[in-house]
Amino acid sequence: LEAMKAGMFLRKVKSRTWKRQRHYKLQEDCKTIAYKSSWAINSYSTFSISDVEAVRAGHQSEALLSVADEFPADRCFTLVFRGRRGNLDLVAESTKEAQAWIQGIGALMENMENMDESTKLDQWISDWFSKADLNKDGRINFKEAKKLLKMMNVDMNEEHASSLFKMADKSKSETLEDQEFVEFYKMLTERAEVLDLFQDYSSDGQSLSQCDLEEFLREEQLEGEGSYEHALQLIDRYEPSDTARMNYMMSVDGFLMYLTSPEGSIFNPERQDLFQDMSQPLAHYYISSSHNTYLMEDQLKGPSSVEAYIQALKRGCRCVEVDCWNGSNGEPVVYHGHTLTSKILLKDVITTIANYAFKASEYPLIVSIENHCSIEQQEVMARYFRDILGDMLLTNTADSSELPSPEALKRKILLKGKKFENESENPTGEVSDEDEAAEMNKDSPVTESPPTNGKVPELSDLIFCKSVHFHSFEHSRTSAKPNEMSSFSESKARKYSKEAGSDFVLHNTRQLTRVYPSGMRTDSSNYCPVDMWNMGCQIVALNFQTAGMEMDLNDGLFTQNGCSGYILKPEILCKRERLFNPENPEKRDDYHPLLFYVKVISGQQLPKVKQKAWFIVDPLVRVEIFGVPLDQAKQETKHIDNNGFNPLWNETLQFTIHTPELALVRFVVEDYDKASRNDFIGQYTIPFTSIQPGRNPHPSISLHFLYFLI
User: Fold this and answer.
1) Is residue 456 within 8 Å of residue 382, measured between CB atoms?
2) How far is residue 421's CA from residue 483's CA, in Å, rounded to a whole number?
3) Which terminus of the chain faces fewer neighbouring Cβ atoms within 10 Å, N or C?
4) Do 549 and 684 form a contact (C-beta atoms < 8 A)?
5) Measured between alpha carbons, how far apart are the two ends of the chain, in Å?
């Protein structure tokens, strides 16, 4: 850490030809890294250690692999950031310096992860104090405090702000020192709505005893047995005062920490870990699936990268796509054929899959292969899959009447592609719709060496899920084998859902179905996956690299069941004897719609959407319901002018949910703009069945009631 604080020159690498020296140093707070170009004088930029998700030692990126002959692996490392920020590839001057950064950042990350809530809060307040203390004299004056309020996204009346400042200035020095600043912060962040709730359950109006907290857990959070013991655990975990904790009491500060912690989340904790039956056939599960996984950006000219596979697999994706084409020197490559997207080596892709396949989930990974290679390079493909994946690769096709279960296939990789099972079968005749679409791209301006179609037994024998052209639901019902699988474009899947909804649902009780985005989506945009899930389609492939509502829904659905990438479909989509049509949910035998009330109470510390000192957001909350067509709905609160710091809405929204088991609820926070489109601030998506309901204010009516603090 001392070496990091002193600072070092490290090479930032973007490619074989782009290598630049930057000066990196750890700040005194041990939470921030500052960096600048070698030619810059004082203009350091920064990033937080909390933004770093992982440190990878060695040549673990395309950029570092490209300079492997110039810089040895023991001097190279990669910082992987959370969210969608790109990775940072660095080369140190020596092995010792590289180890200092690798071990130092690793230790700081571990330290942050192990902080309790109270320490995190102290650190957060300390950060704000440092930002406000412009002249670094260990105290802030009122002018600095006003700038702080702007930074904290609140447009407070100057007179009120001055009043709070004077109340906190116990030393009457017209400045605030660190502890006085803590008091100023507490007055700023006091949440009247939380204090009212706290006092409703407090016996003495000052604190919650273990019995008081137990009553809150039973009455408001609807907890059952074990709530008394749970109350003690919460006091121990969230109460910042040692004295209160020793007396089994919780202060309002501890109460607020609990409410805004993951334990105060609306997500039912019983559904967060693996809770579903994983022993049913694969066709009974939704499977988190990626389209053209190798792409980092658009479909026409963006980069291909093994990093895209790493990111998808770390998010729990269980079906990735590999498009194989003839490469130079007999090496098959992966890229979007007939386009200007960059090419990566197939062997690097397979090695990455082998390394990351089961880091996020132990359940089977499906690798969907589009094979456009010559016979010679298909033989290379087969060798790579067999040698690199080894025992993880499953090749024996099930002979039973249905597919094996995720449980039976744990830590196995299943290849999906063309499979030729007898001598008379035409290797170019039975292909999926997506293969046909790829073949129709021949008029592209990019020249390709055309693949030589032919039968390569070595590759065909490795295929577990056989790609077949879809003829009709009747043909599938009478002739399809369990391991046969068809791919549909989004438009074709939507057409079948409208024309033959019940038949499509029935088909998906037996066979795996893959849906992929339209070829017109060259910008890597996505279609709404809910329409396909309503039909029971299992492999609904999306462009994972593109943020937006569609990926929010995908992430929301697969957040449950231990983020395993497998979600057991509702019973109405698995029973062959009881046909369900999402277009007419009211016709099912056990039709019981629910009333769903959401009370949006308040928010705190919403981020700015524009980093200008004078800019303050005008937030509103929209609640969106996704599911069967009859359930699609949205409602929103009023917007709050100039307050992203502690907006208070206190509005109740009401919905009718006709098919709860297929519904997803998305909460969206936006910055209202009357002259143009609202700016996105944040969102949270959750399956309706995973919501923990709160106290029902109308006990005579069967309903879900949710109290929502942001």
Assistant:
1) yes
2) 12
3) N
4) no
5) 36
Which residues contact residue 345 at a Cβ distance below 8 angstroms, ignoring those fewer than 6 apart?
327, 331, 332, 333, 334
Do the Cβ atoms of 463 and 415 come closer than 8 Å? yes
Tokens at 89, concatenated: 């590839």
* Long-range CB contacts for residues 50-54, cutoff 8 Å, separation at least 24: 50/112, 51/81, 51/82, 51/83, 51/85, 52/79, 52/80, 52/81, 52/82, 52/105, 52/109, 53/80, 53/81, 53/82, 54/79, 54/80
**Mean pLDDT calculated for residue range 439-449:** 44
The whole-chain average pLDDT of the chain stands at 89
pLDDT at 449 over 80: no
DSSP SS3 for 367: strand
The residues annotated with a catalytic role in the active site are 291, 336
Q: Tell me: is residue 590 an annotated ligand-binding position.
A: no
pLDDT band at 113 (very low <50, low <70, confident <90, very high): confident
343 is in an annotated binding site: no
Q: Residue 189: pLDDT above 90?
A: no
Q: Is 390 left (phi over 0), alpha (psi -120 to 50) or beta?
A: left
Task: Check the CA dihedral 580-585-589-594 and report its sign.
Answer: positive
Give strand pairing partners of 80: 54
Contact of 541 with 321, CB cutoff 8 Å: yes
CA dihedral 407, 412, 417, 418 (to 10 degrees): -90
Q: Is the dihedral of CA 115, 119, 121, 124 positive or negative?
A: negative
* Reduced DSSP (H G I as helix, E B as strand, rest coil) percent helix, strand, coil of the chain, to 5: 35, 25, 40
Most confident by average pLDDT, 193-207, 434-448, 579-593: 193-207
Least confident of 150-159, 232-241, 411-420, 494-503: 150-159
C-alpha span between 493 and 489 (Å, rounded): 6
Q: What is the pLDDT of residues 531-554, one digit of tens each?
A: 999 999 999 999 999 999 999 999
Helices and strands per DSSP (H, E), number in the chain: 22, 30
Between CA 222 and CA 200 the distance in angstroms is 16
DSSP states of 223-249 = --TTHHHHHHHHHHHH---HHHHHTTE
Phi (first) and psi of residue 324, to 5 degrees: -105, 130
Cα–Cα–Cα angle for 109, 115, 116, rounded to 5 degrees: 160
The answer to the question of whether 370 is labelled as a binding residue is yes
Q: Is 642 annotated as a binding residue?
A: yes
